[in-house]
Amino acid sequence: MRIKKEAVVIGGGPAGMSAAASLAERGITDIVLLEKENRLGGVLSQCIHDGFGLVYYGKNYTGPEYSALYQEKIIENNIECITEATVLSVKAHETTRYYSVITVQVPAGTIEFETKAVILATGCRERGRGSIGIPGQRPSGIYTAGTAQAMINLMNYMPGKNVVIVGSGDIGLIMARRITLEGGRIICVVEKEALPGGLRRNILQCLEDYGIPLLTRATVTNIYGKERVTGVEISRLDEEGNIIQGSSSSYDCDTIILSVGLIPEDGMIETPHEGIFLCGNALYVHDLVDDVSLEGQIVAGQVENYLHALASGEEPGETRYAYPGIHTMRRKRGDILRRKKRPL
Amino acid sequence: MCPNGCEITEDLNGGMCGKGPAYVQNEILSPRRTLTSSVKVTDGVIPLVSVRTTETIPKDKLREAMAILAKMTVKAPVSLGQIIAADFMETGVQLIATKSVDQIRVEIKSTDQMSLE
Known about the structure:
The complex is a heterodimer of chains A (344) and B (117).
Chain A: E1 2-10, H1 14-25, E2 31-34, E3 50-52, E4 61-62, H2 63-76, E5 80-82, E6 86-92, E7 100-106, E8 109-120, E9 124-126, H3 129-132, E10 142-144, H4 145-153, E11 162-166, H5 170-181, E12 185-191, H6 200-207, E13 214-216, E14 218-224, E15 231-236, E16 249-252, E17 255-258, E18 262-264, E19 276-278, H7 289-311, E20 327-329, E21 332-334
Parallel strand pairs in A: 1-2, 1-8, 2-5, 8-19, 10-17, 11-12, 11-17, 12-13
Antiparallel strand pairs in A: 3-4, 6-7, 7-8, 9-18, 14-15, 15-16, 20-21
Chain B: H1 20-29, E1 32-33, E2 36-42, E3 48-53, E4 57-58, H2 62-71, E5 73-75, E6 83-85, E7 95-97
Parallel strand pairs in B: 2-5
Antiparallel strand pairs in B: 1-4, 2-3, 3-7, 6-7
């Protein structure tokens, strides 16, 4: 038996919560939000640092505080949320065009939803060692930055004591500071490009503040250790990204943190079809959660148009992705919410 | 470079929000940072509550602050915004919880009658 909905929001992080709240505010209330964890908030629950809401609210919130703003909207709007719900597949409806069928795993079994609109707000997964192909042994002590963040901030575990961080994206920088504050030692951050990838404020407040070395045009080319990491080999790279022979040095460490990229979590889409809207990091990796919240509102507007068209028997048109409209961000207008001041 | 990412020049121009000159002055004379970390929770549904200082504290107090936090525990339930320490390290700044933590509820179910003869 399928449960019928006007819209289903997949993901209860900032993107999903913003989209769901906006839908409800527009009078679209026959909706449900599905979240795989046992609580809402997504990655914000583990981002206990500040810097959230500076652009949109003019305030400096920590991740959990920002999340609470939207959890409040969910409650105010009486939006039905099912937690511990993992979406297994999103398929095009067998007979009715524009509709989707969503299969969800819950502790008691599986549920099927039949819905007109699907908002995919599932965020990203992290790239691991395999996808960047670091050779060497396979000891324990190698974690992606988000995993390390969850270990420290949610589970009260330190990933290790002497850490090498691969990648200078924001999450790696944030973890450099976090681990240092909790008594760990960051040996260095290695970045394969010529310039660091994270926001300038994070370079300052996470590396420079703590005297943590940043090696650019360098990468880990070997991992040592049988059961646990004992060290790494770091080599320099030339302008084409090739390893410079003879430039390698070894460093002792017991932990490696990988901050080497995020991949949108969209594997539950069998084949892309009409009626799916992407929102948040599942669409593209955003620098600021403020932009994600704005995007949630825009997507809700697109869903409203979509449902309107279906109700009046019109053709909704291409609706596979959500492209934000023209709006002001900081000083500039942009048609996609993107980082400014990034060198080419 | 300010926390928001604006480049502020020697003549204190270039900031977007107007707080630039004050920030630069502090950075040179007495740099300050917001402290965000976590504190152990007892009787809670999760083991930690994330905390923050409501305003910046002197940067050179961060290490000592972390040592103090490492020894602290808070008893659940904790509510978002709850004051954990009123005048944290005598900086005049509050340490508050940034999320809520429910108390673990223990249900006592009825047991079958047992004969003790």
